[in-house]
Amino acid sequence: MKTSIYPAFLVGYNFSGDARDKTETWNPGQMHTLELAFAKIYKNGGRHVGGATLYAGSDFSISNKYDFFVSPKIGFNVGGGFMFGTEIQFQTNFQQFVPRIMPYLGIGGLGIRIFAGYNFRLAKAESLPINTGHIGITWPIIKGKEKK
User: Fold this and answer.
1) Closest C-alpha among 138, 98, 141 to residue 12
2) How far is CA 12 from CA 48, 135, 138, in A?
3) What whole-number distance in Å separates Cα of residue 121 and Cα of residue 123?
4) What CA dihedral angle connects 114, 120, 123 and 128, to 10 degrees?
5) Best CA proximity match to 66, nearest among 2, 122, 16
6) Which of 45, 58, 59, 62 shows the greatest Cβ crowding within 10 Å of its Cβ?
7) Contact at 8 Å (CB) between 124 and 100?
8) Residues above pLDDT 90, as percent of the chain
9) Which residues contact 138 (CB under 8 A, 6 or more apart)?
10) 47 pLDDT exceeds 80?
11) Which residues pair with 105 in a beta bridge?
12) Exposed e or buried b per residue across 126-148, where buried means at least 16 C-beta atoms within 10 angstroms of its C-beta
């Protein structure tokens, strides 16, 4: 079994609910975000291809419902076919800041993922529109040279 490592640039779209009343109540269809991230992809070859992805990047709001909203994040996922992962997000509108952790499940691997997750609040912000449930798709648009 051989393992190779390569860098990639990931682009994705995320659809989320928000908690307008400062609770964790799901209100679907409230937030749309664009994801941009740099990843290091670990590919395990052999009969069943699988791997892991480490990434760092940010989500940017593309909804006109709220003012500009950004969410720098770091994350990790593992799998081949069925995958699971987690990411830590630092959501802010540059006036307030809320750290979050989001475990997720999905399908994909090697930088590609279709996933669903839920953001858990690590702190409170009184008027920051925080996304709660999260559904997204991510795709590697630029792949670097594989190192074996």
Assistant:
1) 138
2) 26, 11, 4
3) 6
4) 60
5) 16
6) 59
7) no
8) 40
9) 10, 11, 12, 35, 37, 108, 111, 112, 113, 115
10) no
11) 84, 116
12) eebbbbbbbbbbbebeeeeeeee
Q: Does residue 1 register a pLDDT over 70?
A: no
Residue found by looking up tokens 């290091």 in the block? 40
Q: How many Å apart are CA 66 and CA 128, to the nearest integer?
A: 10
CA 133 to each of CA 9, 81, 103: distance values in angstroms, whole numbers, following the listed order: 25, 22, 11
**What SS3 class is residue 125?**
coil
What does the pLDDT read at residue 86?
97
Could you tell me if 8 and 25 are in contact, meaning their C-beta atoms sit under 8 angstroms apart? no
In this prediction, residue 31 has a pLDDT band, given cuts at 50, 70 and 90, of: confident
Amino acid type, 48: H
Contact status, residue 123 vs residue 91, Cβ threshold 8 Å: no
Predicted TM-score (pTM) of the model is: 0.85
Strands (E), the chain: 3-18, 31-44, 50-61, 70-92, 97-109, 112-118, 120-121, 131-143
**Which backbone phi and psi does 32 adopt, to 5 degrees?**
-125, 130
* 3-state SS class at 20: coil
The number of residues making up the chain comes to 148
Structure tokens at 116: 């669903």
* Chain Cα centroid distance, residue 36: 9
